[in-house]
Amino acid sequence: MSLKVAIIGRPNVGKSTLFNRLVGKKLALVDDQPGVTRDRRYGRARLGHIHFDIIDTAGLEDVFDDSVEGKMRQQSEIAFEECDLAFFLIDARAGLTPLDNHFADWLRKRKKPVYVIANKHEGRGQDAGLYEAYGLGLGDVAPISAEHGQGMELLIDIMLPHWEDYRDKQRKARREGDDAVIDDDFEDDEEIIDDDAFPSFEIEYDEDDDGEEEVVQKDNSKIQLAIVGRPNVGKSTLLNHLLGENRVMTGPQAGLTRDSIAVDWSYEGRPIRLVDTAGMRRKKKIDDRVEKLSVTDTLRVIRYAQVVVIMLDATNTLDKQDLTIARMVIDEGRALIIAVNKWDAVKDKPGVMQALRDKLDTSFAQAKGIPILTFSALTGRGTDTLMPTVLDIYDIWSRRIPTSQLNRWLAVVAERHLPPVISGRRIRLRYMTQAKSRPPSFFINSSKAAELPESYTRYLINALREDFDMPGVPIRIYVRSSDNPYGNKKKKR
């Protein structure tokens, strides 16, 4: 198991700012408004040569019921139980509060290393709050400024003994072959390997029908799977069901999830990165600053996802906002799955399904055949079809077609439906190749490419989708002309 550090403390002391500083990325939403973070978030952190997992948590509240604050406290307690040591953050500017003292008493009763970190200590003006923190009875206090990166060397001094113990255990486990203790992400400071320097796929070679050598990428990387949709359609409930644990907060209140939570997971040996996102309402209905940040974060997730599952509420399927989100996913070139949740509440199931399919066919002609799944995330009924569908559409989205096969196909479809005649001469489609996958994108070399009608391009896309069995993914075709190398040269006399 990896060395884990949890950042805990009352709301608005800078936990997410410190988390972002340690992971080196702006992963967690940060705002002056307290209580922005609600679920626990994991990241890979680095201090000098020390690598460890860091856990950002919601602000600790003295609440034990089923309210939002009570659920936030439960998430923080789970993070504390998982960690090897904890950073207890206080606000050096504000000084100690009764809530700080209350949770310091709670932490002293736990048999786990806890270190007090006085954040927002940018100068001597915050020394009063720093000295107060010694009264908590949790040992020395490290003054830092997470926003400005000051005092990080003090965190290295805190981490170093724990890192050395962890490193010694890893070395011993590797010598003895103890798989239960070995951490695959362990990076020894004597031999640090940058995993990003190596490709995430294996290269194999195969021959197509004409004996041409084709490169086949055997992908071993994580599938980036995002769950998006309007508020309160069951996104977090679905993620918890897939993981089999209470990983993120759920409840009848809309907008419980504020920032995107990514979880590394494995399905039948295939690595998956599941991302739960905040609900997206219509732009004109958003007036809260934090909600605007949440929507921006969700848009970022869509851009970096590979497969996107749009959750719909079966009692209110496919309204204008759902179509807007789906169109955004298609425009980004991502593989799309429509998941209709709360299907057990629908009475006229055939009628609702037919209306949904008709709407999709008319709205998304560029990605016909989008998979539509129905289930109940709360009970789990029907959810067993989701992940096989994700793997299928990911493989279609990643498909590559040999050039020779494409050109034979191009000759057949062009003969079946001839390109139009422009200025007395028929447009010729000379050559076709696949430029890239994810999404499948093709180049066609043609005479008078600028004059080829969009309707003919749509004909080619539909034929590609049907002949090569590529339903539900966006396909792009780019038509270009090759310049005549002698066209602009003067004739010799």
UniProtKB/TrEMBL annotation:
Positions annotated to bind GTP 2: 229-236, 276-280, 341-344
Record-listed GTP 1 binding positions: 9-16, 56-60, 119-122
Transmembrane parts of this sequence: none
Pfam families to which the protein is assigned, alphabetical: KH_dom-like, MMR_HSR1
Positions in coiled-coil regions: none
Single Gene Ontology BP annotation: ribosome biogenesis
Record keywords: GTP-binding, Nucleotide-binding, Repeat, Ribosome biogenesis
Gene Ontology molecular functions: GTP binding
Limits of the EngA-type G domain: 3-167, 223-398
Subunit structure and binding partners: Associates with the 50S ribosomal subunit.
UniProt xrefs under HAMAP family: GTPase_Der
Functional summary from the UniProt entry: GTPase that plays an essential role in the late steps of ribosome biogenesis.
Record-stated family: Belongs to the TRAFAC class TrmE-Era-EngA-EngB-Septin-like GTPase superfamily. EngA (Der) GTPase family.
Protein name as annotated: GTPase Der
Organism listed in the record: Thalassospira alkalitolerans
